[in-house]
Amino acid sequence: MESELSKDKWKKKLTKEQYRVLRKKGTEPAFTGKFWNHHEKGVYKCAGCGTPLFSSEEKFDSGTGWPSFDRSMDDASVKEKPDTSHGMIRTEVLCGKCGGHLGHVFDDGPKSTGCRYCINSISLDFEPKM
Ligand code: FE
Fold it and tell me: 67 near 124, Cβ under 8 Å?
């Protein structure tokens, strides 16, 4: 399983910044990633293992500088986990397959789900819809 890749193998597979975010739970600076202002139709996949995670249909402009989604592709595509780091109580979002850190989910979403998945662009790859 991908999550069982060794530290060295992840380091080889990912860029330095991808490693910092995906494997070390880092955060990219707001408004710097490639997807916060990206509006093509398609599927956002895990940059670590390629698992489809979010559809462009569920993406919205949150104004935060990070790509934001109402929901994940399905229940198994992401895992959610309590996170009390940095003096905050948040819910971390991880890739359901490789366990890579994606971002956090908040309960102030503007649409029917009430969720706002706030995701680092660098944790994602994009596959345009043909
Ligand atoms: Fe993954």
Answer: yes
* Domain range annotation of the chain: 2-128
Query: What is the tens place of the pLDDT at every residue in 70-120?
Result: 999 998 999 999 999 999 999 999 999 999 999 999 999 999 899 999 999
Cα of 103 from ligand 1 centre, angstroms: 13
| Gap from CA of 86 to ligand 1 centroid (Å) | 24
Q: pTM above 0.90?
A: yes
In the reported structure, the alpha carbon of residue 99 is separated from the centroid of ligand 1 by a whole-number distance in angstroms of 6
In this structure, CATH architecture of domain 2-128: Beta Complex (2.170)
Specify the 3-state DSSP secondary structure of 30: coil
Concerning whether 46 is annotated as a catalytic residue, the answer is: no
